[in-house]
Amino acid sequence: MEIFKGTATFSGIAIGKILYYSRGEYQIRQSMAGSVKKEILAFRDASLHAAADLKSQYEEKRLLNQQEAYAFFRQIELLESESFRRAIEDCIKSEKVNAAYAVMLNRDEMTETFRGLEASFIAEKLEDIREISGCLIRILGGSSARINLGDEPVILVTESLSPTEIMEMDKNRLLAVVMHHGSADSHTSIVAKTMEIPTLVDVMADDEWEGRTAIVDGYTGTLYIDPDEEVLKEYKLRLEADRKEKEALLRFRDETDETADGKKIGLYANIGNMSDLNNVLYYGAAGIGLLRSEFQYLGRESAPRESELFQTYKKLAEVMGDRPAVIRTADLGADKQAAYLDIPEETNPIMGNRGIRLCLDREKLFRAQLRAIYRASAYGSLAMMYPMISSEKELDEIEAIIREVKEELTGKKVPFRDIETGIMIETPAAVMIARELAKRVDFLSIGTNDLTQYTLAMDRQNPLLKDKYDDHHPAILRMIRMVVDAGHQEGCRVGICGEIAADTQLTETFLRMGVDFLSVVPACILPVRKALRETDLGRE
Q1: What DSSP string describes 489-502?
Q2: I want to staple 471 with a disulfide (CB 3.0 to 4.6 A). Which of 149, 193, 245, 452 is the partner?
Q3: pLDDT per position as a tens digit, 257-308
Q4: Residues with Cβ < 8 Å from 341, sequence gap 6 or more?
């Protein structure tokens, strides 16, 4: 038995045979170019074909899932860039090789050059290079992009996988995915999470595993190859228990969100796209605690028009009805860039001009979103909150703009409601002035993802820090309590919308702190509901 540790990006247990996917490009053999000009023309034709395919997929996804659509947009930009084209054409000219082999050489050279750099945007770019290189090679070689998983469900092991490839797979024949490259925040991991497929990354894949029995533990991030009888027996029991637990959780869909001693808690869903609404309703969330509106701005050549934003928010309000739906204003910048924003290059973008800072700098863009939100408020129970607040001065500017937006809508006789507003507590500065901020809004929502990395001074996407990054750090828990106490002193509701909100080991801790609501991804609604209903705050 061999045991490998990786990083789990979605939980679950899988037992089955391994299918090693090596992608067609790894089979490309070097051949001398009979005509350099002909190979360059073949590469250019393939690039046009690949760009057309990517644009088609982008348009298909843009209105349903902006987050996935953004991946296609990035790849189009890279494919059409002068530097990418020149690198491959220069390789064809200098090495006198066929176009497909030149694409593969360029891909491997880029991967090797940047392999040691751990910045999240570098990992994202390498993933894009691998994806468009694979697309070009398939076109040049005439092979199909579709992966044949065979007749029986399998555990797919591969160096890397693109969002396109995993979306084309038959979910019923895919037990789990194990990749060498990737991260918990990659688009492939996001798609796998949406499909509820156990996924591991950071596992050195080996083609000799083909056909061997394996176990994927998506809770601990462990891969077992050729498990012994004792381990196999244990995991078969765990797999059955896992299945029964998920089935048992469904009985909580229609249960109320309250503790065993009757304290009511708001349990909401975090979503990034309108396509997530079905899961919100299926799992019985009390509402939407966080709509990441920035994904409407990504993967496109210009900012969305006010009318487009309005239609999206109107649909959100209508679908959710009386259930509250909180729209976070666009958290752009850092790792969420759009070319049309023309954001100057920053040494440390995570600490740079992002979130509300960028919105206040681009007031026209911000006003359009605010108008769209207020116009849509007439159709349901919308609310709004602001990301990355660190000072009262920012609130002064926001409130001045909102007053003008309301006056403008009133003057044009456009109906709207005076919706609730809130603040994301994501910076240590916001924690320290939480009481002052609470006086000015209806609720505070603690974004523990950013708050943790800013407090610990650790990039949460840096693999080198994965064993040191601790979102359960005592400092974070103390900060949560500080914000809850400060908010309640001013009669302001306080909740948590970061990933830590889904940690059922902390549910009772949060409730005893006095947290008023939790907001988690839809798939975590039922486990958290179960945990809070089993909590008795009257028991010491």
Answers
A1: HTT-EEEE-SGGGG
A2: 452
A3: 999 999 999 999 998 878 788 889 989 999 999 998 887 887 677 888 999 9
A4: 297, 303, 332, 358, 362
Q: How far apart are CA 527 and CA 246, in angstroms?
A: 9
What phi and psi, each to the nearest 5 degrees, are found at residue 178? -125, 120
Instruction: State yes or no: pLDDT of 25 exceeds 50.
Output: no
- In three-state secondary structure terms, 154 is strand
CA distances from 457 to 123, 351, 454 (A): 20, 10, 5
Q: Is the pTM of this model over 0.85?
A: no
- pLDDT tens by residue, 433-463: 999 999 999 999 999 988 998 999 887 767 6
DSSP alpha helices (H): ranges in 96-228? Answer: 99-114, 120-141, 163-168, 187-194
The strand pair at 7-10 and 199-201 is best described as: antiparallel
> Quick one: pLDDT band at residue 115, thresholds 50, 70, 90?
low
DSSP symbol at 264: B
Edge-to-edge strand ranges of the sheet holding 2-5: 2-5, 222-225, 213-217, 13-21, 154-158, 174-179, 199-201, 7-10
Tokens, residue 75: 């790849």
What's the CA gap between 15 and 269, in Å, rounded?
Answer: 30
Residue 100 backbone class (left: φ over 0; alpha: ψ -120 to 50; beta: rest) = alpha
Cα angle 314, 408, 492; round to 5: 65
Average pLDDT over residues 243-255: 86
Q: Rounded CA gap, 87 and 90, in Å?
A: 5
- 3-state SS, 513-526, equals HCCCEEEECHHHHH
Would you say 199 and 10 are in contact if contact means Cβ atoms under 8 Å apart? Answer: yes
Please give the positions annotated as active site.
Answer: 187, 497
Cα(41)–Cα(43) distance, rounded to whole angstroms?
5
